[in-house]
Specification:
This protein has about 90 residues and is an alpha+beta fold. It is built from 1 helix and 3 strands, in the order βββα. A 3-stranded antiparallel beta sheet has the order 1-2-3, covered by helices on one side. β1 and β2 form a beta hairpin. It is rod-shaped and about 100 Å long. The termini are far apart.
Length: about 90
């Protein structure tokens, strides 16, 4: 006998999705058969929150990448301007 835990995605009649987590414990009954005792938990809200969080993290990562690229581009521009100033000074 083995305990189990599974997660299921259910499509409801209105086409919405519901996620449930099922846990069960197997027991032998009086006639040597197997009986399961368990619980079903609706985890839809947690799934949706996790999905939104991953989306926000991806958005933040992209914003950080763009900010870094802009800083690099700004640094390169400043270096070019400094070099131009030094070169023009040398030619004077």
């Amino acid at each position: 006998m083995k305990d189990f835990g599974h997660e299921y995605r259910l499509e409801m009649p209105d086409s919405s999705l519901k996620y449930v987590h099922v846990v069960a414990h197997a027991l032998k009954d009086e006639s040597a058969g197997i009986e399961f005792v368990g619980a079903v938990m609706d985890v839809t809200a947690a799934k949706q929150t996790g999905s939104r969080l991953r989306g926000s993290e991806a958005y933040l990562a992209e914003a950080q990448r763009l900010t870094w690229e802009c800083r690099l581009a700004g640094s390169r521009k400043k270096r070019r301007e400094s070099l131009r100033g030094m070169v023009s000074h040398l030619w004077l």
